[in-house]
Every structure is written in C-alpha cells, then in structure tokens.
Amino acid sequence: MRKIRDFPEGFILRLTHRVSSKGRGFRGVRLHRRELGFTLVELLVVLAVIGILVGLLLPAISAAREAARRSQCQNNQRQVGLAILNFESAHRVFPASGWTQRGPGNPYGTYMSWRTVILPQLEQTNVRNLYNMEQHWWEGTNLAVAGIPIPIYVCPSTPTQDPVLSAVAKSPRPALTLSLALARTDYEAIQGVQPNSINPAFYDATNRFSVMHRNSTNRHGSILDGTSNTIMVVEAAGRPSVYRRGVLRNSLRNDQGIGWIDSEGAFSLDGSNSDGSREGCRPENGCSVAINARNDNEPYSFHVGGMHALFADGHIAFVQESVALRVMAALCTRAAADDTTGWDND
Prior knowledge:
Strand content: 5-15%
Distance between the termini: 81 Å
Strand order of the largest sheet: 9-5-6-10-11
Shape: globular
Number of helices: 6
Low-confidence stretches: 10-29
Radius of gyration: 31 Å
Largest sheet: 5 strands, mixed
Number of strands: 11
Structural class: alpha+beta
C-alpha cells in the first residue's frame, strides 16, 4: 500500500475526512491532481497590484530626482557666490553686472559680462585665457569661447533648450548668425528694482540698485541694508526661450540672457500679474507677483514653489513663490532702508 509521502511532487492531496457517527476513523481518502499555474483572475490581481505600486513609486522617484537637482542648483550658486566674493577680495569691489567702459577686471572698457571676469575664481582659467579682453564679447575669437559650456552656470532642473544660433542687433552689438551655439546660463545678476513698476513714491535713481549693476564699483561698505538681506544673483532660467508659468511660448522671444557671455542679460525687478502676461503695472493694478510667473528678464526657476537666490554675504536662500513683491523689492536693493518684514529666510 502506497503512503502519502510516496506521491510525486506536483500533486495536491485533499483528504476528505468522513467520520462515522461514532467519531471513529476515516471512511475514505480521495486524491486529486491539479496542474500548477495562474488563473486569469490571479494574473489580473497581480497586475493591478503592480500598477498601484508603480503609481505610488513614480511620484516619489520624481520628487527624489528633483530634490537632487535642486541641491545641485543650490551648490552651483554657492560656487558662484564664492567666486564673486573672491573677486571682491582681489579687486576691492564687486564685479559689475555688465561693463560698457573701463573698470575693475575690464581694463580695455569692452562690453563684458560679470560671468566672464569670475571664471578664474571658478577654476575656469583655461576658458578665461582664451577670451580676448581687448574685444567685445561678440568679436573675433570670443564667439568661439562663447560656445564653451560652463556647467556651473546651468541649473539641472531647466528643460533642454533649443541652441542659440542667432541674435538680434542690440547696439552696439550687430545682429549675429552663429555656427557654434552660445552656451547658456540660468543665473543672472539682479540690478535692483524698476521704481515705476514697484513704488515710484519710494524708489528712485538713488536707492533702486542692488550690488551688481551696469558699470558699478560697489564695495561691502556700499551695502547699507546688510549683506545677508541683499540679493546679488537670481535664477533666470530658460532664457532666451520664453516661459509663462512653466509653459514654453514659442511665439515669443527674448533678446537678453542669450548666453553666459552676454553682457546685456542683467535686469531689474518689475513684478508681473499672476499668469505672467503683463509686467511692471504695479501691485495696485495686478502686477504683484515677484517670481516664477515669467522668465523674460524676471526672477524665474523650474523648481516647485520658488527659486534660489544668492545673497551678498555668499549664502543661498530658497525664496518662496508666495513672497510679496514689496519684500522681494526690498531684498533686491542694497541701500534703500526698505522693509523686509515678512521675509522668511529659508
């Protein structure tokens, strides 16, 4: 007589106990065989569970990747800040946002960007040595230098942009047609505020500027509002492509911020309406949004909820999208004695 353990694997034994009315023993044993496998219902259940898990994991993975990109962007700006402070230590003045005349770091008075003069402080001496300071940035071999990517000037959260192979005339710069695309930048000096856009009763030509503006020669002593309360550099991501609230607008184009070498990319804060369709119309007329509504020469990033800003003491803060235009304007001026109440330094 064969025992239960003698049956080969793959068999399922189902023992049917039929106990007599007196509770004595087994009356019979039935053996059933079934092939191993999944039923259609089981397969559908497994697929549904996998789908749910994927749905839960993808947002988490996306958030983790953006957190890493945001951290890298912050580190980029920190390195830029150290380079600017080292430039100031060497020249006793902060770099200008752009030059049109002779100044510290620009002995020949050519049109040159602040990003060009701090290249040695960013360990980009080889690129700096290729640049001809005796010519404007768009002249001679400088255009070849303009095509060299500087990774530290690019935020990894910014979408891939179309290559910049042309530029409209912007006197004295002629219109440009390029064989080598300009290497771009996502960081720009904030020159200050536009008085008529913010508050013409308070801001004027004497108090509207930040640390780095056209042909400036500001020192630490020029920052009367405090270095930890004064923004020097903001994210201005995606230029010269034009974005409105994260949406690319191919029908629009910007003629500033066309590359890291561009000396005309710096701008002043205007403020815009909620969808970014208007700027500089003043808060009482609906232009009360400080950042991330439009990227054509306004503070803008592709981070969720705000953007990074570099302050004059070298620290980086994440400025929330909800920041009041009044507070942002106060942070973008160096000596206006304006009110930063409500500023949460993240």
